Amino acid sequence: MELEAIEQLRNTGLTMKEARSQAQELAQQLLANVKRQIEDQLAGCKHNPNDCLALSGGYQLVQV
Q1: Count of alpha carbons within 13 angstroms of residue 51, beta-carbon side
Q2: How confident is the model at residue 53 (pLDDT cuts 50, 70, 90)?
């Protein structure tokens, strides 16, 4: 996330030194946005992720 933040800051015209000094704060914001998007997608799921059955070994999911 920090590299993405530096790239975004550099695209706004900041020097590399300025971008690196501000990157951590922006990276935290970017991570929070990604986390929120994932939580929103999971909230729209029919089944709660805690109720899922873990498949292992030779088992495969078969669509009926």
Answers
A1: 5
A2: low
